[in-house]
Amino acid sequence: MQNPDRQSGLPAGQLRSFVERIERLEEEKTSIGADIKEVYAEAKAHGFDTKIMRKVIGLRKKDRAEREEEDTILDLYMHALGMVPEQAAPDD
Fold this sequence. Notes:
Helices cover 67% and strands 0% of the residues. The chain is built from three helices and no strands. It has one domain (12-80). It comes from Kaustia mangrovi.
């Protein structure tokens, strides 16, 4: 551990190092965000629905079981709210 600052008792050099690293990463994150925005704009220019693309990307981050559980709950809620038409009984 670095020598602590006499007034605060904190290792000022180590703290400064962490803060500067975080600041650099925040700058990179901003740059990457701008790059992602550009890719979405390019996809939109080619006729893709970027709102749906964002949903697809979100779904790809989840495993199959998690997606299936969410789909089941969504279906349950939609039925409860009358958002899904009732299916007619098959003719026997």
